[in-house]
Write a structure and sequence with these properties.
By secondary structure, the protein is mainly alpha-helical. A two-stranded antiparallel ribbon has the order 1-2. It is globular, with a radius of gyration of 22 Å. The protein starts with a helix and ends in a 10-residue tail after the last helix.
Length: about 475
């Protein structure tokens, strides 16, 4: 373990993060609010923390190894979650306890969208903007942004990129140099954010709301500046725009890069993962709509149709926006929506969940085993598109799935021991581990009423989901620390 280079990078990344405090500070000044002190103080504290860590070892030239990358990523997300809580604790409104502030910060940075806050409509705009900004930074991963700058530190960026980038396919670089790959991803990310904000603004949102919601939409995160979420706007146009950009953000960002490079939509149309993703939206959306009609949940057919497709897309992409009290919908629809979040978006997107490509591989592997019973001597490859997948890829997916299930069960049991009922614990773990946000039962609206142990366990689940299980759990392996 190369401690000096790890400390050097953590310090440098903290200094970068400290400057993000200046943006909500500007918002506070623009809206003539008194909420400037929390961000001034947070900026100075976080910057000095980073400087204290970085300066003593800034001359260290050791090369970063892959295992060191896992440590950097995990430590940074933990440190970032705690550091990001400072403005919430320092603000007069809301003035949050340490546990609640860390929960809100971790939920934002992991793009989960679960909250302990109520009365959002009365909060200072600087605080509201800060919540949205946390999600936007966490969406693509602030470390991927930093990878574009890390060459200045003379440390390898690929190790951080592999450890941080969400999705099962981490070794595919869009450009020959990893720093250029990080820049390409962020240019696309920023471009989608700008287009989304403009679309929201044209559809009727205020400038503030348009920018704030574009942050959480592109990050597939779900925080809103209003308690009623997207229902506050009561606009079909805004909901349609949200659906479009939630879907785009749940696509593999490599596809966006390739489509832009070729100036053609064919990469989307030819991608088998996108096809499966679209099929899930269509089938489940129609199923939910039909169920609502049969059960007579609402007499307005058009409204039912929009709400059905919106909630299906919101839960599948793990964004977590709501336009209706989904938890009061009849039958098993609320639970179906929760199960959708297990699938999640495409690999290499900002969405959470297992990812569509993993679900496809698990399904096709299961079908292959059934066919092997019929044809035991046949060679039956598992294909994604027309490409046979290597055995190590399938093994990795099954390893991920097994650890995911074991982690889910253990965290659920701990939450039940901490006081949640079965439904609240199950949906609460799903909401956190899948980085979804909305849940059912006691935590359907927020986690405010839960005890501190539940909130800390939820924070662990959010980090575990955001870091794709392996990145965090590898640190618990004795072999990791032996050499």
């Amino acid at each position: 373990m190369r401690i000096k280079v790890i400390v050097k990078i953590i310090g440098f990344l903290l200094m970068i993060f400290s400057f993000t405090m200046l943006v909500p500070l500007v918002v506070a000044v623009l809206y003539d609010e008194l909420a400037t002190t929390p961000f001034n103080t947070a900026f100075l504290v976080i910057f000095l923390m980073g400087l204290v860590l970085w300066f003593p070892v800034h001359r260290c030239q050791d090369e970063l190894r892959l295992r060191d990358g896992f440590t950097v990523v995990t430590l940074f997300w933990v440190v970032l979650g705690i550091s990001g809580a400072l403005p919430f604790m320092l603000a007069e409104h809301p003035h949050m306890r340490f546990t609640d502030a860390v929960f809100e910060s971790v939920s934002g940075l992991t793009t989960t969208g679960a909250t302990v806050l109520t009365g959002l409509d009365e909060l200072p705009r600087a605080i509201l903007f800060y919540r949205q900004q946390l999600q936007w930074l966490g969406g693509m991963g602030i470390i991927v942004l930093a990878v574009a700058i890390l060459p200045m530190l003379r440390v390898g960026g690929m190790q951080l990129y592999r450890a941080e980038t969400p999705g099962p396919i981490k070794d595919t670089k869009l450009t020959p140099r990893i720093a250029e790959t990080a820049k390409a991803l962020w240019i696309i990310y920023v471009g989608l954010t700008v287009l989304c904000a403009l679309a929201y603004w044209v559809a009727g949102m205020s400038t503030f709301d348009a920018i704030a919601h574009s942050f959480s939409t592109i990050a597939t995160a779900g925080y809103s500046t209003h308690d009623a979420s997207m229902a506050w706007f009561d606009s079909t146009a805004i909901e349609m725009i949200a659906v479009v950009f939630m879907v785009l953000s749940a696509f593999n960002f490599s596809l966006h890069f390739i489509a832009l490079k070729r100036r053609s939509p064919k990469p989307y149309l030819q991608d088998s993962e996108v096809q499966a993703f679209a099929a899930i939206i269509a089938v489940v959306g129609l199923f939910v709509l039909g169920h609502l009609w049969v059960k007579g949940a609402d007499d307005a057919v058009d409204e039912d149709a929009m709400e059905s497709i919106f909630q299906v897309v919101s839960f599948l992409t793990t964004t977590g926006y709501t336009t209706a009290p989904y938890y009061d919908w009849p039958g098993f629809v609320p639970m179906l929506l929760i199960f959708l979040s297990f699938v999640g978006g495409c690999g290499g997107s900002t969405a959470g969940g297992l990812k569509v490509v993993r679900v496809m591989l698990i399904y096709k592997q299961g079908v292959r085993e059934i066919r092997r019973l019929i044809h035991p001597n046949a060679w039956l490859p598992v294909k994604i598109g027309n490409r046979p997948q290597e055995a190590r890829v399938i093994d990795a997916v099954w390893g991920f799935f097994s650890l995911y299930i074991v982690s889910f069960v253990l965290i659920m049991l701990v939450m039940m021991e901490a006081g949640l009922d079965e439904l609240s614990a199950f949906s609460g773990v799903a909401a956190c581990l899948n980085n979804l946000g909305p849940a059912l039962g006691e935590v359907a609206g927020n986690f405010k009423s839960t005890g501190d142990p539940v909130k800390w366990v939820a924070c662990f689940a959010m980090l575990l989901g955001r870091l794709e299980v392996f990145t965090l759990l590898v640190l618990f392996m004795p072999e990791y620390w032996r050499t």
